[in-house]
Every structure is written in structure tokens, then in C-alpha cells.
Amino acid sequence: MTDLSGKRALVTGSTSGIGLAIAQALADAGAAVMINGFGDADEIEAHRADLEQRSGAKAIYSDANLMNPEAIDAMVAACTSEIGSPHILVNNAGMQHVSPIAEFPVDKWDAIMALNLSAVFHTSRHVIPMMRQKGFGRIINTASAHSLVASPNKSAYVAAKHGVAGFTKTIALETAEDGITVNCISPGYVWTPLVEQQIPDTMAARGLTREQVMNDVLLKAQPTKRFVTVEEVASCALYLCSDGAASITGANISMDGGWTAQ
Ligand code: NAD
Predict the structure, then answer these.
(1) Active-site residue set
(2) Max Cα distance, the chain (Å)
(3) What values do phi and psi take at 184, rounded to 5?
(4) Which fold is adopted by the domain 8-189+229-261?
């Protein structure tokens, strides 16, 4: 079993979905965790307290809006002063917008680039010097099957996730001799609020019913015909934090039920 006691992890976008499951898996292995994201204050506090129970170490929360580089500076500084500089950075926060290109709202393009791509650059550039000092680091980026293949009406998301995959490879090379690994996990469709929220837009963009979107658009891509679970993604992240994964760097690990094998 992976033992992360004494380690500190910063997991972005971890108040729900995949990020929360990763934070829980890291806490179960003993890591002190900083979570980040938006949502109901009482629910977030319940998650934070639960993480402390799981790890027996400190768990803290940052409400930083990762579209804002200055907020990212402050989040990393708070993590470092309150629990210590992170050994593990999980860049997970992300958003989606579904629209044909001619009508794609410019503000949504800018927001997706800022959150899904630029935030990964800003957190990494702060954290890598601290990981180098420790001679140990694990950076895990939640990319997507859309870092490898495209779907119509998701131009910003697909462009940003392809960018994350390229960034991951580049930074893996830059840190290869420093005890740091940098990888991305590329899930197919995982049942989370992010997927649930895009169903109405996909219904409108393609003129389909909810059932048609679920079966003919989402699960059609996945040969397993089932959604990936957040626990499966979290178990992969935990493995990447282990000593056994020390030689895995620059990889883009597909967890997509066979989608990109086709
Ligand atoms: P989710 O909507 O459940 O979680 C997103 C998290 O990001 C939440 O904690 C939210 O509060 C946070 N967040 C949103 N905007 C933010 C901002 N501006 N600043 C800081 N935090 C912000 O979604 P999810 O499905 O768990 O997605 C997590 C990651 O997984 C995303 O990067 C997404 O692109 C990726 N992904 C999801 C799927 C899927 O099918 N759900 C598939 C592949 C990749």
C-alpha cells in the first residue's frame, strides 16, 4: 500500500468530482491535503474535516479562482505556510463549454484556456522549485480523452487538453533528473457534475433527447459502455504518487474504457 504520511498534496478543483476523490485517496494514504474549488461552504467544510479524519494530518481549503494568476500565487503561498510546500501537485480544476465554433462565446474560450491550461502552468512554475529542493515531486494533470482525440463543438476544451498533454511532456523532460515525475491521466466520460451539466447544451447543439445524448454521444465513444468512476481515476493518481511509479514520467495514461484505442 502506498504510504504518503509526511507528504503534502495540493489538489486543485477538489470540492467535487474527480478532484475530491483524488484528495480522499491521498488523505487515506496519510497525506496532508489542500483542497480548492467552489461550492457550498458547509459541504466544503465537511469534506475538509473528513480529509483530516482520513489522514490524521492537516487538511486546508483555498477558494482561489484559478482563472486569476494572482489568486494562484496566493493559494500556493498559503499551502506552503499552512501545511508546508507540496510534494504532490494535482492540477485537476477544469470546465467545459459545448458550442459550435461560429457561436462559441469568446469569454468561454478565454475562461477555458485560463482554467484548463494556463492554471497548470502557473501552479507548476511555483511548485517545481520547491520540489527540486526536496529532490521529490509528483505532478499529476487531469487531462482527458480529449487530450488525444476531438469531438465536435468542444473546440476550447479539446485545444486546452491537448495543450495540457504537451505541457506535461515538456515539464517531464525539464524535471527528469530532479526526482520529479510529471504525468497526465486522461479519463473518458466520468459521471460527475461536469458531465451532467453539458447534457442540456449537447441536446440543444445536436437536437437530441437526454437519453440519446447519454447513449449515442457519451457512452457511444466508450466500448465498455459504462462511465469511468472517480475512484478509478483516484487509484491511478495514488499509484503515480508511489515509489513504484518513479520511472513513469511524461506519460499520458488513458482511462477511457477503450475509447482512444479505436
Ligand atoms: P467537477 O465539475 O465535478 O469538478 C470541477 C472542480 O473544479 C470543482 O471542485 C470546481 O469547484 C472546481 N472549479 C471550477 N472552476 C474553478 C475555478 N475557476 N477555480 C478553481 N476551481 C474551480 O468536474 P470533474 O468532472 O470532476 O472534472 C475534473 C477534471 O477532470 C477537469 O479538468 C475535467 O476537464 C477533467 N475530466 C473530466 C471528465 C468527466 O467525464 N467528468 C473526463 C475527462 C476529464
Answers:
(1) 157
(2) 54
(3) -120, 150
(4) Rossmann fold (3.40.50)
